[in-house]
Amino acid sequence: MLERAIRESEVIKEDPDYNTLTSDFFYYTGRYYKKMIDPDPEKKPWDYQFFDTGIKEKRWESLLKNAGIFTPNSRKIMRRMKDSGGEASCIELARKYGGKWQDYSNESVALAKRVRDKTGCGIVHVADDKVKYWPILFVGKKAETNEEGAYTWKLRDELQDALNKTDLSDVPLYEPGMQQVSQEVNQAEESIAEVQTVGENLIAQNAEQESEPYSKENFLHDVYLTERDFEALTGLLTRKKNIILCGAPGVGKTFMARRLAWTRMGAKDNTRVESVQFHQNYTYEDFMMGYRPEERGFRLQEGVFLRFAKRAAQDPGHDYYFLIDEINRGNVSRIFGELLQGIETDYRGMPVTLQYTGQPFSVPKNLYLIGMMNTADRSLAMIDYALRRRFGFFQVKPAFDSAQFTEYGEELHSEAFDRVIDSIKKLNKDIKDDTSLGEGFQIGHSYFCNMEPDTISDELRSVINYDILPTLKEYWYDNQEKVEKWKDELQRDLD
Fold first, then answer.
1. CB within 8 A of 410, min separation 6: which ones?
2. Could you tell me the mean pLDDT of each successive run of 10 residues in the chain, 495 residues long?
3. Distance CA 87, CA 80 (A)
4. Which of 21, 104, 165, 173 is most buried by its number of CB atoms within 10 A?
5. Which long-range contacts (CB under 8 A, 24 or more apart) does 303-308 make?
6. Beta carbons within 10 angstroms of residue 169's beta carbon
7. Strands 151-155, 87-89: parallel, antiparallel or unpaired by DSSP?
């Protein structure tokens, strides 16, 4: 009675004579005893483990000898499942032994139907009068995050026992050429895992020993930002978890991004910072996951963001920062794919389904995204609305009038430097007032940072001739007179 109650609680039987009262009795009794047998909710029991086909070990041994039921392809699957310890997903079988994962799924269902036709065993009914045949052979469950494939099968105990007594040595374990590939892949994975483990340990040791403290005061000294703007910036990052530093070239966006991460971590710890640069050919496969060519075919590999996000998820006690330079140079919707929802603050920790594996994945709450966007590149399309909703935008402006830059200029003791900076301020006003340009095209202060008093004349001349003037020629390609005017004025400042 107990076994029947458990079985009926999992499976809707075909018998039309079952009345509602009987069904309800078995359903609730089965659920009650199932909790007694398997009380641990974290255990994630196998699906259909309480469904009983009625086929015992001896009957499976007989069926395995029937070539009309267990065809050569079916016997391949059985041997490969047995070799895998009786538990694997279709993708894992295809990757290790060869063939397509769809073939493993389709052939298993076909085999189960043949077994059903031969034995008349019970089957699993689901909604809309649909039938699941594979539970005749397997129990199953969603694959773990570290496993390949969306769903894992496990041989039923009776079938596993029968297979252990069946000689399958005449069945090829691998598809032609796959044995060597499988061995090479396993060796490569072991080597990579060993290198990664050693590398991560060394990084962790170095981080503990050598991480230099980094504070708000350090940030304000290095980055020419006011304290008020700093508070606004950090508040925005805390609230949105995803921000974009936008501004013209030379305002220090990339320099600022890494130091913002250091400030929030309290140390110059680059082990928890990852950076990439988007470009027109950057893809979802680079970012999240995709197939990569190898000597003998293709292999599914994780992208830089997925790897980094998994690291962050395994270390919830620390914040992690992912920096994206030139974020508006890539096709952001295609690169992020299904993650455009997953990166939102309200959806952090909630799973989305990955397109290549069908597995759930969630962006951890301790992972922050900082993008950098060049507002002066005419070749770039506008950021789409989907991205704007998910990122907070912080405008980074030239800091020539900041207290930090003023102090830096005074320490150089250079009249030429002072004249050039005064002219750049006037130039920026001209750029800002130009309706075809605007504030986002102004000249940034970082062009003039880190100059040395002994070589400042040569450095200023180089910046003006090879950075500033080419930029002005691009801005005012249709107004040569204005370009010449500013060229004359800036070069006079050098004399």
1. none
2. 46 42 45 46 72 91 92 93 90 85 89 93 79 91 64 92 91 77 50 51 49 90 92 95 92 94 94 93 91 79 92 93 92 87 88 86 94 75 68 92 91 92 94 90 92 91 93 91 92 87
3. 10
4. 104
5. 304/274, 304/276, 305/274, 305/276, 305/339, 306/361, 308/274, 308/367
6. 7
7. antiparallel
